[in-house]
Each structure stands twice: as C-alpha cells, then as structure tokens.
Specification:
The chain is α/β, with parallel strands linked by helices. It contains seven helices and seven strands; from the N terminus they run βββαβαβαααβαβα. It is globular and about 45 Å long.
C-alpha cells in the first residue's frame, strides 16, 4: 500500500498516484526548483508518479539555507528519499547539476545497500570525471546574469528585475558552487542502463563529452539529441518525456 503519510520538503508530488507502478524522480538544474517539472504529469501514464526534488533555498523552501557542500546535500537527500524508494520501483532523471546530483545519490544508495533505480537518465551535463573549466561561482553578478541568458529559460523581464535577481543570484551562486567544487572519486560502474540527453545547441556539453557517460555503466548506454539549447525541454517537455517512456 502506498503510505500517503510520507511527505518531505525535499520531494514535491504534484499529482499523487495511489498505487504507482513506478516513481520518476526528477532532479532540477542550477537556480531552478521542483516547479520545472510541474506539468510533466500530464504526459505520463496515470500509474507513474512524478516526484520532483526540491533543494533548500528556493520556491517552497525559500527561507531555508542554501547548500554548498556535497556531504550536507547527499546525506540529507538520502534520508528524505529513503521512505519513497522502499515502496515502488523507480528511475532517476537529472538535468545539468541535477544529473550530477542524481549520479552521486545513486552511488551513495549503492554504498549504503539501499534500493537503486532501474534507469539513470542524465541530461545536459558532462560526465563526472570531466572537470568544469569555466568557473563562475565567484563571478560578478553581471556575468551570472549573462550566463542565465545563454542558458535560456529565464524570461528577460526577470533578468532585468533587480529585486528578483537579488533573490535569484545567491541560489545560482550556491548551485554553481556545488557544481564547480565537485570532486569525482572513481567507483565501479553501475549495473543498470544510463541514457544521456542533450539539446543540439547546448553550449554546456558537446556530444563527444556526453558520450563518455557510457563508461559509468556495464549495462546498456543510449544517447539522444533534441533540437534546442541547454533548457530544450522547458517549454515543451513532451518529446523528452515520450523518449523516457520508451525505456520504461
């Protein structure tokens, strides 16, 4: 039975499903939050429950402290996820920073002998062993704003609104800190499939780098490109979701 009593600020379920066949956990990119995945449910079968991860310091958790250390993030997130992953089979989807977080969560689950996902879908991020060359977590605000503009996905009116940027930029800076201070430690490859996605115009990750995710699994590896930039699925997630469903 689905234990409807479990809830956590870390996990937003926009359309609860009484007895899901599968849970799809979605990890958001830098400066985003769970609402990025708010409308994904309408493209999913009714027996797949979408669980969107919500990091502290944004949206419903705006009053909480931002996290900039990996140990703090992983231990808290594993604790929040545990009751949700014990109940039903599940898969992970992570975009950009979210792809890296989902990967590290999988490895921690495996180390702690907890349930692991049936698939890992990674999107818009270089594989963990390739360090980031363009460090921006200490860049001046105007550089951060132009970075957001390059990514696409943030309306120009928001980028030009100083009050909103005052709230938004510390979140972006904290997320960039996580992303850029990450240190990869080698472990055995995963035993389940990895699927990697990118937008053809994504400046953050090219096809050659993306394809190197293959070395992280001894199972199947698949690579797909979609037209668009870094946030190619934001306005129209349907084609991406349809592709994910083909694997499920």
């Amino acid at each position: 039975m689905n234990n409807t009593n479990i809830s956590s600020p870390w996990i937003k379920i926009f359309q609860p499903c009484p007895q899901p066949k599968l849970r799809l956990f979605c990890f958001h990119p830098s400066a985003a939050g769970a609402t990025l995945f708010r409308f994904w449910g309408k493209y999913l079968p009714s027996n797949i429950e979408l669980c969107a991860i919500q990091l502290p310091g944004r949206e419903t958790r705006i009053k909480e402290s931002l996290i900039t250390k990996w140990d703090d993030l992983l231990s808290s997130l594993i604790q929040a996820l545990s009751p949700f992953i014990e109940e039903y089979p599940f898969v992970f989807f992570g975009h950009s920073l979210g792809a890296l977080i989902s990967f590290e969560i999988v490895r921690k689950l495996r180390r702690e002998k907890l349930p692991i996902p049936e698939y890992l879908f990674v999107c818009g991020r270089r594989p963990p062993h390739i360090p980031i060359d363009n460090l921006r977590h200490q860049a001046p605000n105007d550089i951060l704003i132009s970075t957001l503009r390059e990514y696409g996905g943030t309306p120009e009116a928001v980028l030009q609104n100083q009050e909103l940027m005052k709230l938004f930029l510390p979140v972006l800076r904290a997320d960039f800190t996580l992303n850029e201070k990450y240190i990869y430690f080698p472990e055995a490859p995963l035993e389940f499939p990895i699927v990697a996605f990118r937008g053809t115009n994504d400046m953050e990750v090219n096809l050659q780098k993306l394809s190197q995710w293959e070395q992280y699994t001894i199972s199947n590896f698949t690579l797909h490109e979609f037209s668009g930039g870094h946030m190619f699925f934001q306005k129209e997630p349907k084609t991406l979701i349809e592709k994910i469903l083909k694997f499920l």
